[in-house]
């Protein structure tokens, strides 16, 4: 008895039965997929006492546990992702772009059993694992427990302050193979910092019965990396209101709050009051920025794949599939310098091409979903792969672009490039090889997107929508140090050329420095052309995806055909000679706002017919010739009583508005039904590919 002896509580009956519990930990894909070594498993018996132990070879052993019901929590372990921060002169809002995952993060318990039992006990609500944990009974002769968890998240970090060369390791690739051999990638958009993961809610925070006498710090526990849906978040909001002594009520136009402790009523505007109160909850429990976007989209893709035509609770946790979350440096400083973010997206796409090749070479089928400027990242990757002389043609099952912040003719081909230059001011608007790589391309667009252009319905205007949207103005910031070309040429010969033209103090430098500088503007033009042509020749001779130097802003090209290179030379010379001020700011409308209205249908951006002259001006013969099975468009609206109701009324509406009274039109229900379930999952992924094991 001595090794397992524990002191007894004086006010309780003697606890004679104690046992050594062994828990076998693996994820839901296969028993051989054991949880990593070093994760701390803290077991709690029915008295609330804690018994911590580390996982070794998939097992944790806990000595002297009181017989009866036990539960457990995970925490810690070694870093599971990148921690290297690369220093450079990038203008980013974040100093560090490394991913913060610990080994335990993402392993959410979904079922467990005593191995003497035939069946598993299922977690009713995996997201309440800390507040209301799953329990299993143990005894002296029944002390072997099997625990099954969600597989870990898969994150591809393409952010520029990284020094990664292989973006998916062998364990992650094997996870995708074990999950059916189909990978669904999601790429977020512009101005999205990396952020942080959310955490589990505690019993106290949910107003439920306290589980443990020994208190766990939720910040030190595993992070679920799992979207916590509206029902759970509403409960958290209600508990906070109860603790403050508040009653929240709504009318058609406003929300009022009665503080019962002070007996006073405070009317507030519904949307602003509740959204401000809710943001605090969302950041804590659902995460922040990119690390909140990815699990949100993942959750609703799983719900759609499971066959739910309407919003409901998810209940097929055994099949829950992790998407491949792709994060990139879209959060630039200053945040309105959209063009800088476009060039960072081009670079990220070049890196993503390497990730796609990893997957393709292992026989993994691929679906890609993008939001906003994430479309440029995906198109850049495919433009690179599409220039491999048919090696990667039709290797992607689906490219689905949601509110794409690229030109409406972005996927046209190289024919008549000179004609396309008119609305391609910096040689970055079109991706002439990208169309070759995906078998099916889908565009989900909305005239209610006030970021990409003006909203059609003024009562739903976003702030930028009132000003005509941000996208059409993306080249208005030309001039001065904010002009993003300067980032790429500081300290290079081209940067010195610009200084020689615009800063005569350089000619006071020693002769050996002066000798390298252009003697005239004409000589400067010649020298820049020589540098770019030489690099283009070297890139063309390279058998793989070569590193770029002077051509790096145009990283969305693997090689540089003559007409494209001539355009790039023209653009760069013009900017050097004009001290980065450039010329010309007109662009075509955004694909995520126009869809095929101007390229194919001969309509203006609102769907009204235009003159024959105007139609010819915007028409694209290549895009118009694509069959619907190759290129398909979906205008996001709902028919209500034979009237058109635009439900996609915000640029980021694809994320759930968890607090119902913020979503006053109940638009997310329509977004889920039509965009997630009908178009993305039913008509595209499940028609032409597959999502995980569903």
- Which whole number gives the mean pLDDT? 87
The N- and C-terminal alpha carbons lie at a distance of 50 Å
Radius of gyration: 28 Å
| Structural class based on helices, strands and sheet pairing | alpha/beta
- Helix count, DSSP H or I runs of 4 or more residues: 18
Largest sheet: 7 strands, parallel
Quick structural summary:
The protein is an alpha/beta fold and 694 residues long. The chain has 18 helices and 21 strands.
Question: What features would you describe in this structure?
Answer:
The protein is 29% helix and 17% strand. With 694 residues, it is of the alpha/beta class. The protein has a 7-stranded parallel beta sheet with strand order 10-15-11-16-17-18-19, sandwiched between helices. It has a 5-stranded mixed beta sheet with strand order 4-1-9-6-7, with no helix packed on it. Helix 4 (290-305) packs across helix 18 (667-688). The radius of gyration is 28 Å and the shape is globular. The two termini are 50 Å apart. The mean pLDDT is 87.
Layout of SSEs?
Blueprint: E1 18-27, E2 40-44, E3 50-54, E4 59-66, E5 68-75, E6 109-114, E7 121-122, E8 136-138, E9 144-149, E10 154-157, H1 170-178, E11 182-187, H2 230-243, E12 246-250, E13 255-259, E14 264-268, H3 270-286, H4 290-305, E15 324-327, H5 338-361, E16 365-371, H6 374-385, E17 396-402, H7 417-420, E18 438-445, H8 463-466, H9 485-489, H10 493-502, H11 511-514, H12 521-541, H13 562-577, H14 591-594, H15 597-601, H16 612-618, H17 621-624, E19 631-635, E20 638-640, E21 643-645, H18 667-688
Parallel strand pairs: 1-9, 10-15, 11-15, 11-16, 16-17, 17-18, 18-19
Antiparallel strand pairs: 1-4, 2-3, 2-5, 5-8, 6-7, 6-9, 12-13, 13-14, 20-21
């Amino acid at each position: 008895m001595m090794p397992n002896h524990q002191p007894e509580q004086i006010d309780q009956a003697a606890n004679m039965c104690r046992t050594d519990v062994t828990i076998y930990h693996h994820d839901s894909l296969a028993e051989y997929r054991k949880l990593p070594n070093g994760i701390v498993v803290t077991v709690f018996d029915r008295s609330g006492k804690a018994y911590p132990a580390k996982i070794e070879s998939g097992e944790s052993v806990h000595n002297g546990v009181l017989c009866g019901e036990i539960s457990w929590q995970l925490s810690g372990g070694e870093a599971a992702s990148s921690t290297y921060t690369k220093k450079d002169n990038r203008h980013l809002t974040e100093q560090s772009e490394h991913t913060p995952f610990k080994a335990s993060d993402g392993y959410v318990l979904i079922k467990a059993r005593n191995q003497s039992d035939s069946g598993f006990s299922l977690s009713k609500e995996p997201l309440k694992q800390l507040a209301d944990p799953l329990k299993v009974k143990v005894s002296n002769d029944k002390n072997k427990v099997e625990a099954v968890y969600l597989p870990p998240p898969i994150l591809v970090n393409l952010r520029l302050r990284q020094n990664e060369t292989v973006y998916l390791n062998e364990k992650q690739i094997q996870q995708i193979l074990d999950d059916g051999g189909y990978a669904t990638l999601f790429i977020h958009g512009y101005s999205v910092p990396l952020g942080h993961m959310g955490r589990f809610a505690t019993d106290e925070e949910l107003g439920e019965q306290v589980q443990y006498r020994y208190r766990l710090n939720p910040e030190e526990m595993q992070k679920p990396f799992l979207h916590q849906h509206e029902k759970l978040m509403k409960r958290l909001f209600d508990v906070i209101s109860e603790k403050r002594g508040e009653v929240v009520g709504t009318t058609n136009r406003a929300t009022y709050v009665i503080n019962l402790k002070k007996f006073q009523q405070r009317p507030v505007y519904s949307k602003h009051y509740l959204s401000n109160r809710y943001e605090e909850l969302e950041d804590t429990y659902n995460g922040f920025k990119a690390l909140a976007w990815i699990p949100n989209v993942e959750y609703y893709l799983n719900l759609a794949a499971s066959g739910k035509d309407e919003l409901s609770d998810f209940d097929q946790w055994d099949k829950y599939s992790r998407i491949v979350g792709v994060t990139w440096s879209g959060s630039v400083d200053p945040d309105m310098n959209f063009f800088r973010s476009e060039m960072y997206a081009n670079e990220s796409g070049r890196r993503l091409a390497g990730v796609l090749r990893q997957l393709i070479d292992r026989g993994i089928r691929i679906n890609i979903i993008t939001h906003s400027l994430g479309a440029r990242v995906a198109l850049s990757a495919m433009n690179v792969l599409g220039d491999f002389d048919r090696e990667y043609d039709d290797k992607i099952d689906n490219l689905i672009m949601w509110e794409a912040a690229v030109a409406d003719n972005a996927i046209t081909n190289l024919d008549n490039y000179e004609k396309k230059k008119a609305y391609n001011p910096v040689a970055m608007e079109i991706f002439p090889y990208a169309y070759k790589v995906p078998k099916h391309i889908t565009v989900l667009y909305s005239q209610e997107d006030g970021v990409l252009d003006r909203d059609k319905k003024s009562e739903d205007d976003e702030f930028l929508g009132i000003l005509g949207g941000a996208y059409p103005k993306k080249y208005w910031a030309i001039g001065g140090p904010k002009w993003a070309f300067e980032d790429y040429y500081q300290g290079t010969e081209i940067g010195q050329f610009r200084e020689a033209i615009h800063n005569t103090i350089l000619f006071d430098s020693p002769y050996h420095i002066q000798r390298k500088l252009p003697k005239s503007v004409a000589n400067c033009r010649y020298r820049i052309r020589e540098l770019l042509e030489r690099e283009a020749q070297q890139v063309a001779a390279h058998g793989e995806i070569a590193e770029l130097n002077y051509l790096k802003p145009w990283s969305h090209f693997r090689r540089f055909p003559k007409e494209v290179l001539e355009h790039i030379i023209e653009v760069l010379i013009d900017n050097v000679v004009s001290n980065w001020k450039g010329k010309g700011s007109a662009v075509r409308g955004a694909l995520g706002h126009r869809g095929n209205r101007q390229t194919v249908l001969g309509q203006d951006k609102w769907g009204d017919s235009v003159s024959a002259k105007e139609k010819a001006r915007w028409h694209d013969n290549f895009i118009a010739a694509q069959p619907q099975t190759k290129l398909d468009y979906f205008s996001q609206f709902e028919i209500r009583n034979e009237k058109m109701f635009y439900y996609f009324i915000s640029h980021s509406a694809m994320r759930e508005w968890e607090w119902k009274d913020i979503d006053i039109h109940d638009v997310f229900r329509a977004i889920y039904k039509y965009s997630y379930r009908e178009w993305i999952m039913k008509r595209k992924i499940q028609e032409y590919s597959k999502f995980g094991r569903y």
